[in-house]
Amino acid sequence: MNPFFSQLGQSVYDLWKAKDFRPALFPEIAKTCLQKFAPSKRVDLDDLISNFLLDDRQPYQTSSGFGQPELIVYENTRFYIQILFWLDGTTDIHQHGFSGAFHVLAGSSIHSSFNFTQITPVTSHFQLGDLKLKETQLLETGTTVMIHSGPSCIHSLFHLETPSVTVVIRTHSDPGSDPQFTYLPPHVGLDPVNNDALTTRRKQLLDVLEAAGNEDYGPIVVKMLKELDFERGFFILQNCVSTLRNLGCWEKAWAVFLRKHGPMALPVLPTLEEIIRRDGIAALRASVEDVEHRFFLALLLNVGNREDILKIISSRFEGSPLATISRWGEELLRITESGTWLVDALFPSEIGNDETRHQGVFLAAMNHFICGQKPSPELRRLSKTDLESLGQSLHDSSWRNLLPEKRSSSSKK
Ligand SMILES: [Fe+2]
Q: How far, CA to CA in Å, does 334 sit from each of 192, 338, 346, 364?
């Protein structure tokens, strides 16, 4: 048993008991104690790890899959303290069925909070609505944040260092706050615990057909979409969208889903597009080793507006954030068999096929549309239509959140 966390837990217990264990007061008490005990200043991570590995006198450990891993360092019947290690970058956008507070013990994180409004429940485990970003902050080591159960506290964390470590003081569960929805921006909320085993097996079986190159893949998915209810149809679309697009079957599959479910289906399309965008950036990030590039891709993945992205870059790097972005863009530019890519923006094929010019033109377009520079001579030589195509390509990619407001809102999409 780690004596530091025993004292921290006892302190929380005493304060909460003095307030008759009123649930609404727990987040504030947990936050106050974390700030007072300051684990980031007083806990030596190496000692903590040694103690856990070598001393059998540890609190009861759950089989939770949360954290990488989760260690429980204090527990009683009302609440417990967990240490969460994070090796991957990100958590889903989620709410909680518990309350308390967390403290960044090591590393730092991008923390985004959201509102989910205009809710239309489809089933008890699946909702449509509008997920809007409220705020993004950079949480440095030592920061403490309260957690409230239910939809008032929807958030995501992207951990920038490996490992990042957080201390969480939390209740076991807050009655009435289930399910603990996870959100797929911009329009879907779902209960990740509600696993429909039949749908899971069907998705896996479709993956087998895909891997085998089976010609029936597209037609059978279309038949399924004609039969399935909204929720299960969504999960099949989510699983199959990329493959259907590669097979040229996407338009038909979407038309079937839209015809079957009418206007209720409309929020699904931007949600699937955002899933594809996020998967693409996450895959690119996994292939990139440069620390600054990984940081920039994390921002594109997680921060929804230009102002916050520039603010966070300024907090970490000297000089103009736009100049830094311009440099990162140039370093991240790559040429593949499918064309010239600026992160996930593809150089428009209609602008000639002189590939030797693509890189310079694309970077000039980025410097113009994103960084506000005057059009370079190579941009001035382009037709108005070609220049608009370049702007549209940036808008249709993760650069969209970096476009100044005017271009972003006036665009067609
Ligand atoms: Fe959380």
A: 36, 11, 10, 15
Alpha carbon of 99 to ligand 1 centroid (Å): 10
Calculate how far, in angstroms, residue 94's C-alpha sits from the geometric centre of ligand 1: 6
How far is Cα 327 from Cα 342, in angstroms, rounded to an integer?
A: 12
State the distance from the centre of ligand 1 to the C-alpha of 242, rounded, in angstroms: 29
The model's confidence at residue 218, banded by pLDDT at 50, 70 and 90, is very high
Q: Do the strands 109-123 and 126-139 form a parallel or antiparallel pair, or are they unpaired? A: antiparallel
**Average pLDDT, rounded, for the chain:** 92
Q: Which strand (E) or helix (H) includes residue 109? A: strand 109-123
Query: Ligand 1 mean position to 263 CA, how many Å?
Result: 32
Tokens 């106050």 locate to 32
191 C-alpha to ligand 1 centroid (Å): 15
- The full set of domain ranges for the chain reads 3-187, 197-266, 272-410
CA of residue 96 to ligand 1 center, whole Å: 6
Centre of ligand 1 from the C-alpha of residue 92, in Å: 9
> What radius of gyration, in Å, describes the C-alpha atoms of the chain?
24
Helix axes 230-247, 217-227, angle to 10 degrees: 160
Average pLDDT (38-62) is 93
- Between the CA of 358 and the centroid of ligand 1 the distance, in Å, is 43
Please give the residue that has the higher pLDDT: either 90 or 328.
328
The CATH class, in words, for 3-187 is mainly beta
Running DSSP on this structure, what letter comes out for residue 358?
A: H
Please tell me the distance between residue 76's alpha carbon and the centre of ligand 1 in angstroms: 21
Those residues whose C-beta lies under 8 Å from the C-beta of residue 64, and which sit 6 or more positions away, are: 70
Q: What percent of the chain has pLDDT over 70?
A: 97
Query: How far does residue 380's CA lie from ligand 1's centre (Å)?
Result: 48
270 Cα: distance to centroid of ligand 1 (angstroms)? 24
Residue 377 or residue 189, greater confidence? 189
Vertex 339: Cα angle to 334 and 343 (nearest 5): 40
State the pLDDT at residue 89.
Answer: 67
Q: Bridge partners of 81?
A: 74, 169
End-to-end CA distance of the chain: 56
Span 105-117, pLDDT tens digits = 999 888 999 999 9
- If you measure from the C-alpha of residue 179 to the centroid of ligand 1, how many angstroms do you get, rounded to a whole number? 14
